Amino acid sequence: MMIALVCVLILGGCAVPPTPESRLDEYKAESETLAMSVVELIPVHLEPALDTELESRGQAPQNGVTAEKRPGDPAWWQARAYVSLVEWEGAAAEAIAAVTEAMKSDGWTVERVRETGEGRTITDGFRQDDWYVEIAWVKSEPGRVERFDISVVSPTTVRGDHDDISS
Prior knowledge:
Blueprint: H1 2-13, H2 24-40, E1 53-59, E2 74-84, H3 91-105, E3 109-116, E4 121-128, E5 131-138, E6 147-153, E7 157-158
Antiparallel strand pairs: 1-2, 2-6, 2-7, 3-4, 4-5, 5-6
């Protein structure tokens, strides 16, 4: 009896803790909804009649120790919406101003993340709780399409049973 009790105590103390439940399915839906909600903040007169292109996929950092995918590995969901604005000088600047104002009033913080292409492409980042939205937009330039690219990154969760996530 005493040996059995000792074995239970020893084995119980060595048990692997359970893997937390993945929230990737929930985050997928929220990321896609948030991306399209940001698109809806763009003033209607700036959007062309084309449909907005949406990409959505799970992401995970590369595991430097093993290539094995484990349910407890960290992961997040990322949705991207690509909007081509009307061919009108200043469309992207007007769109980012409207989106920034609406998101700030909804409690998001905003910061300039980077400028590339000699300042032609500007990327602004928005944060609320553990959610992150990044918007890359271009300054007006004659003969150039003014794109507005929206990327939504969910909070980190665990991979769970999602084997289709890219690293």
